[in-house]
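Reviewers of the previous submission asked for a worked example of the structure-prediction workflow described in the proposal, so we include one complete record here. The input consisted solely of the amino acid sequence. No template or homolog information was supplied to the procedure at any stage.
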Amino acid sequence: MVFLRTLRLRPAAAISTEILRLWFTARDAQLAASTLAAPGTRATTSRDGGPGFNILLWSVPDGARMSSPNTWAMGGAPAPEAVAFQPAGGVPVVAGLVSRGGSVAGLRLEVHDLSGQLGAVSGDVAVRAPVAWGFGGQALAGVSVRDPRRVVVMGVERKLGARMGTVKMGQTVLGHLEEVKLLGFMPGAPPRHPGAVVSAGRDGYVRVTDAGSGRTLKRIQVGTRSSPSLMQVAPVGGRVVTVWGRDVVVWDVDTGRVQSYNLDAVRDTEGWPLAISPDARYLVCRNEDGFDVSDVETGQFRGDFAWPAAPIVAAAFDSTGTRLAVGDMEGLIQLFDVVTGDA
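From that input alone, the workflow returned the following structure tokens.
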């Protein structure tokens, strides 16, 4: 695997600000980054007076910065998991949590079209991070504010001709014994059905639950003391990959087959997991010299890139796995074409 650098981007030429997370938007049309709000900018203070962070967009592949109002400030929910980009459609639509009172109890879920073509959607549903979109872009899930062991499924509605839409509460999903840390959806939901929610919790379970009935469909228990830090649900094939500290767990939901390994057992150098490709094939890790990519199923090394700048803290693959974006602590983002050599 070879990485060919195509773009170098910064949130602002004169500002060094840490990259919190990177995403490719629907159809890989834009690259999005969440960054700490720089001192003295409009985004430093959110509507509740607390610290905020920015959502910035660049077009792909030319790297042109999308102008205001496509810089979106949020506050009160600093976790990168408080933001999720809609996987469907032709415009960049983001769901995020905004605090209305400086506390978790005041969180409000808002959905914004960052291109300005569609109206905003909001709802007073008591959820907290993480949040996740269904594959069809009509369902959302978040963790209950009242009980973080529960998952709240929501529907997104836009009436014809209306500039404002609504987020409506649906099924509350039970099952976890401790806090839910990661959320996703299985692909292939039937029409007018929210589908199946995938959740990973501090209790060591990964669960697949029918979002309409709340009934458990499948589950596995992971024998690790660490909390889950990464999860990726493949759009086809029924594969769910989770990372728990240095343990990687690959679950084929359809067959029930589970594989797991420890990164320290398969790597020659120490690595810190950053992201899993959308097709659940590759894992990108930070290392002390830059970054590297390995095969998810086996942990086999595929390629690396030396990064002499600040430590890398964020990464994202596009939907095809042929582009990789990497960001560091000083705000530098680089975009690479990924040449795999696969037939």
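The helical segments are 263-266. We consider this example representative of the routine output the project will generate in years two and three.
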